[in-house]
Amino acid sequence: MKRDFLKKNFDGDSAAHARAVYKGSGYEPEHLATKPHIGIANTFSENSPGHAHLRILAEAVKNGIWQAGGVPFEFGVPSTCAEVAIGTKTMCMDLAMRDLVAGGIEVVSSIQHFDGLVMLSGCDNIVPGTLLAAARLDIPAICCTGGPMLTGCLKSEPFMLSDVTEFCYGRASRGEATKEEVLDAEYQACPTMGACPTMGTANTMQILTEALGMTLPGFSTIPAVYTDKITNCRRMGRRIVEMVAEDLRPSRIITKQALENAICVDLAIGGSTNAVMHLIALANELGIELSLDDFERFNSSIPCIVNIRPNGKYGVDMLHRLGGVPAVFEQLGERIHKECLSVSGQTLEEILKHAPKTPNEVIRSVENPMSPDGGLAILKGNLSPGGCVIRSSTVLPEMHHFIGTAKVYHSDSEAHKAIIAGEAGPGNVIVVRGVGPVGAPGMVEVMEATEAIVNLGIDDRTALITDGRFSGFCHGPIVGHVSPEAALGGNILLIEDGDRIEIDIDRRKIELLVPEEELAARREKAVIPESGIQKGFMRLYAEGCLPPERGAAMQSWLGKR
Question: Which of 48, 399, 65, 336 is nearest to 195 (CA)?
Answer without folding.
Answer: 48
